[in-house]
């Protein structure tokens, strides 16, 4: 389990110097073993923030701390250390998975990045990982094109778990899936978080999905956090007008979702 702290983080967009910042002085914290949901419309800066946390996006100001230590990505050793602590799952599994590699090959590659495993241990680890994400081990030797969209996303999720990270970032991972598949994947993520004790940053623009997963919800707009509060508080007594607008667009959310979170 890992604690994440983001302190006054700023990420600039490419373009003129006077362009608005993609991430403008954002601060937030994810205590060990909890899930923070980050919600906002497209272009609000959510993915830029995720990229900055994992070292994929240059940071112009502020700090990102894991367990009290500042993230550094200057050397290969720094990046390897970060990869052991933090993994990210992206929106589109079609671009995240190598089309030439079977699910088994993908998971073995991830599981052996930081440690050596013999053939028997590799097979056992693949079966374990597929089981964690709700996939039949008999799918292990299929290529991505032979799997459904939901199955591909589960393989991508399993690969991220293969290194046993303390923090998982899920960036819009259900938005490309059918509604019925979304619900199943969301429930799997909730079970994983509870079972593995993961710290998690769950990013989305779908407020019901974000609330279903999260202990605390942060609302992002134009590169800034406009409101952050426990999920129940966001649902019942939102303070910012933008949060109220998001809630108003989903009339049944207030009554249906709290019961789902407690189940």
Alpha-carbon Rg, integer: 18 Å
**For the report, how would you describe the main beta sheet?**
6 strands, mixed
Give average pLDDT, whole number.
Answer: 89
Low-confidence runs of at least 5 consecutive residues: 253-263
Q: Please, how many helices?
A: 11
Assembly classification: single chain
User: Overall 3D geometry?
Assistant: globular
Strand content: 15-25%
CATH superfamily: P-loop containing nucleotide triphosphate hydrolases
CATH domain topology: Rossmann fold
State the strand order across the main sheet.
6-7-8-3-9-10
Pairing-aware structural class of the strands and helices? alpha/beta
What is the succession of H and E elements?
EEEHEEHEHHHHEHEHEEHHH
CATH architectural group: 3-Layer(aba) Sandwich
Total count of domains: 1
* CATH top level assignment: Alpha Beta
Report the strand count.
Answer: 10
| N→C terminal distance | 23 Å
The percentage helix is 40-55%
Task: Characterize the structure shown.
With 263 residues, the chain is an alpha/beta fold. The strands form 2 sheets. A 6-stranded mixed sheet has the order 6-7-8-3-9-10, with helices on both faces. The chain has 11 helices and 10 strands. It has helices spanning 46-53, 76-85, 93-96, 103-111, 119-132, 149-161, 179-196, 207-213, 231-236, 241-248, 253-262, and strands spanning 4-11, 23-30, 35-39, 61-66, 69-70, 86-89, 167-171, 199-204, 216-221, 224-230. It has one domain (4-91, 166-262): P-loop containing nucleotide triphosphate hydrolases (Rossmann fold, 3-Layer(aba) Sandwich). 41% of the residues lie in helices and 22% in strands.
């Amino acid at each position: 389990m890992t604690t994440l702290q983001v302190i006054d983080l700023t990420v600039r967009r490419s373009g003129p110097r006077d362009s608005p910042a993609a991430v403008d002085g954002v601060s937030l914290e994810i205590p060990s073993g909890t899930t923070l949901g980050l919600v906002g419309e497209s272009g609000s800066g959510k993915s830029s923030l995720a990229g900055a946390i994992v070292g994929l996006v240059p940071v112009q100001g502020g700090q990102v701390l894991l367990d009290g230590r500042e993230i550094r990505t200057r050397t290969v050793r720094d990046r390897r250390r970060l990869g052991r602590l933090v993994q990210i799952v992206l929106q589109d599994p079609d671009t995240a998975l190598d089309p030439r590699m079977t699910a088994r090959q993908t998971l073995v590659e991830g599981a052996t990045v930081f440690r050596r495993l013999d053939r028997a241990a590799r097979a056992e680890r693949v079966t374990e990982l597929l089981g964690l994400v709700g996939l039949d081990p008999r799918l292990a030797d299929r290529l991505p094109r032979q799997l459904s969209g939901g199955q591909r996303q589960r393989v991508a999720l399993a690969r991220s778990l293969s290194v046993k990270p303390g923090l998982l970032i899920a960036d819009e991972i259900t938005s490309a899936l059918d509604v019925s598949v979304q619900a199943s994947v969301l429930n799997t993520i909730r079970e994983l978080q509870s079972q593995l004790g993961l710290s998690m940053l769950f990013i989305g623009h779908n407020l019901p999905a974000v609330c279903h997963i999260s202990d605390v919800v942060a609302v992002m707009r134009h590169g800034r956090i406009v409101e952050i509060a426990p999920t129940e508080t966001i649902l019942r007594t939102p303070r910012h007008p933008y949060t109220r607008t998001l809630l108003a667009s989903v009339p049944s959310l207030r009554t249906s979702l709290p019961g789902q979170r407690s189940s």
